[in-house]
Prior knowledge:
Shape: elongated
Amino acid sequence: MKPTLNNILIERIPGSKETESGIILKSTLDQDKGKVLAIGPDVTEVNVEDTVFLNWNAATKVEGELYITPIDEVIFIY
């Protein structure tokens, strides 16, 4: 898949939902992150393989854990 214009393709990395001892948490501060798999030609802010935090409500699910979103929805880069 190759994003167009200012879009990026991201693989979602789920946040930790279970403690080391095996207790499953209903809510957690460790939010889902995303790994950049591909970038459109107009994107200069991130690179492939960067880990990002973004507005997941603005992302469009492509398949499985793959999402596409405009670069403007990235909040910060790890």
